[in-house]
Amino acid sequence: MALEITDTVILKSFPFGDTSKIARCYTRDYGKISVIGKGVRKGKTLRSGYLEPLNHLSLAFYQNPRRELQIFSKAEFINIWTAMKQNVKKISYGFAIVELVDKGVTGEEPHEALFELLLETLNAVNDTKGNINVIFWYFEMKFLSLLGFRPNLSTCPNCDETLNGGVFSNEKGELVCTDCLQIGGNTVSSQSHKLLRKLKRESLKDVLNLQLKRGERSEVGGFLDRYLRYHIDAVQSVRSLKIMGKVLA
After folding, report:
1. Which of 41, 84, 92, 177 is a Cys-bridge partner for 244, taking CB atoms 3.0 to 4.6 Å apart?
2. CA nearest to 244, candidates 81, 83, 95
3. 56 has which bridge partners?
4. How far apart are CA 191 and CA 173, in angstroms?
5. Strand order in the sheet with 166-169
6. DSSP labels for the chain?
7. Three-state DSSP class for 237?
8. What is the pLDDT of residue 184?
């Protein structure tokens, strides 16, 4: 087995046996992997703390390509994101972000752009003084695009007319114009549609100061939530999103 070192974000961890811990990690060089820290929960060792969700590490592990579970060797903290972990609202969004990656990404193929998006978003959640929901929506939009599910916000998929708002079609999983779907679905106003297009095409820096009214927040967040659930089956069971809805209600 080769000893490998890579940047990683811990997505999820859980105890294994009496003294060990398993962690799912999203890495820069190896995509999503699982590692086992043998004996890290034994006694007063500090090694267990490395394998906690929402840690950014330089991770050393023994890799065996024929095994699904790799062996943890050692780690060093790069980011602990203390401000996020001390704020209920921030940590709720943080857990939702890493769970989306855990549930939405399959296989071990590395994806540099997705890893950078994950770091960029978690750094922003940690550092922001407000507008966490905009950061989260930015992540959802870019996450969808990187996985190949980039929303079509330009033309109606039914009639090819230019969209200026519309209705989310539960049948097509897309935004359609109000002429094609007048009853049912969830409406997206013209202004909410403009905000979604900004989230789709602009950088995080450019959208951080977006100001949304309550109705617009509901429409933008609702559209992205329904779009994710339609196009990525595993997102149906993202527990953090359900908990976040209760905590932040």
Report:
1. 92
2. 95
3. 9, 79
4. 20
5. 174-176, 166-169, 186-188
6. -EEEEEEEEEEEEEEETTTEEEEEEEETTTEEEEEEETTTTSTT-SGGGGGSTT-EEEEEEEE-TT-SEEEEEEEEEEE--HHHHT-HHHHHHHHHHHHHHHHH--SS---HHHHHHHHHHHHHHHH-SS-HHHHHHHHHHHHHHHTT-----SB-TTT-PBPSSEEEETTTTEEE-TTT--SSSEEE-HHHHHHHHHHHHS-HHHHTT----HHHHHHHHHHHHHHHHHH-GGGGG-HHHHHHHHH--
7. helix
8. 65
Residue written as tokens 């929303």? 151
Q: What are the tens digits of pLDDT across the range 107-152?
A: 778 999 999 999 999 999 999 998 899 999 999 999 999 999 999 9
The answer to pTM > 0.90 is yes
* Of residues 242, 197, 198, 244, the one with CA closest to residue 93: 244
